[in-house]
Amino acid sequence: MIKIILIIIAMTLFGALGSFYLKKSADSMTNIFSLLKDKNFYIGIILFCLGAVFNIYGLRFVDYSILFPIKSLAYIWTIIIARIFLNEKLTRYKLAGISLILIGVIVLSI
Question: In three state form, how does the secondary structure of 10-24 look?
Answer without folding.
Answer: HHHHHHHHHHHHHHH
